[in-house]
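User: quick one, sequence for these tokens?
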């Protein structure tokens, strides 16, 4: 009965060891199990331990549950951001092309781009003159597009590290548009990947908007590191985007905007992918 509460505590230890972030993915479920274990410990006369486990479980689970129902601003917000992991086996992007045209975003960030998906970018050329694709040696990579003009020579492509950025000129001035694809967490190399890209993100001077498949939840140390480096915050409430092994939905696809810029998000259909898209609306410029 002590193991789930111990794992729950460890799920907040991503800054100490990457295993903490791996456990953080399942913190909500660890919280529920720890609450049951806390009740069992209390009944077995381990009252202080049981009460402590229960309080900790309620605090951890309650915070996460609240984030799923957090208030979002109503009304018109000036910028729309379309975030989507395409799935590398996508052969026909027609549905995604239609969805993008229907949503009419200002910023588009894509992951698991392959040469098979080139038709998507071609179909968007007229409306999105700024386009960039960054493929790795395995012909998988990331892409972005915007209806705003790109600042010359601003492109940053790190094909082996899942990062692509360009600076575009919006009505509020230059803004960095970043697309990001992180690896799975420990025992895989997500923490090491983040360590390698942080210096690049920190050098992006000025406002940053970022969309990506983080393969990580919002309450993780990984998210804190990315937000801190880019001076951003996650847009909107928590939304589930990916089904793990056919059993557990997790929120691992996110859009970030400059701190103080409150916005809202919603999920989009799968459209042939294994990730739901994220549609974000937010302001830029003079945010509170």
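Assistant:
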């Amino acid at each position: 009965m002590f193991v789930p509460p111990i794992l729950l505590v460890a799920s907040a230890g991503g800054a100490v060891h990457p295993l903490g972030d791996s456990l953080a993915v399942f913190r909500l479920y660890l919280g529920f199990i720890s609450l049951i274990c806390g009740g069992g410990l209390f009944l077995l006369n381990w009252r202080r331990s049981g009460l402590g486990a229960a309080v900790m479980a309620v605090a951890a689970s309650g915070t996460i549950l609240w984030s799923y129902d957090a208030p979002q601003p109503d009304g018109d917000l000036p910028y729309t951001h379309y975030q989507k992991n395409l799935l590398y086996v996508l052969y026909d992007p027609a549905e995604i092309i239609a969805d993008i045209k229907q949503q009419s975003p200002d910023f588009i960030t894509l992951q698991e781009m392959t040469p098979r998906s080139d038709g998507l970018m071609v179909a968007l050329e007229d409306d999105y003159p700024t386009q960039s694709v960054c493929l790795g040696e395995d012909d998988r990579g990331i892409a972005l597009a915007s209806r705003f003009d790109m600042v010359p020579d601003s492109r940053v492509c790190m094909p082996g590290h899942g990062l692509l950025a360009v600076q575009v000129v919006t009505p509020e001035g230059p803004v960095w548009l970043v697309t990001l694809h992180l690896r799975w967490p420990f025992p895989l190399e997500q923490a090491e990947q983040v360590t390698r890209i942080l210096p690049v993100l920190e050098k992006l001077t000025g406002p940053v908007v970022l969309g990506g498949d983080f393969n990580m939840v919002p309450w993780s140390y990984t998210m804190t590191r990315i937000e801190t480096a880019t001076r951003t915050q996650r847009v909107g409430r928590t939304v589930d985007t990916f089904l793990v092994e056919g059993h557990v939905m997790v929120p691992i696809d996110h859009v970030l905007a400059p701190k103080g810029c409150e916005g809202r998000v919603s999920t989009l259909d799968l459209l042939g992918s294994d990730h739901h898209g994220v549609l974000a609306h937010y302001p830029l410029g003079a945010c509170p």
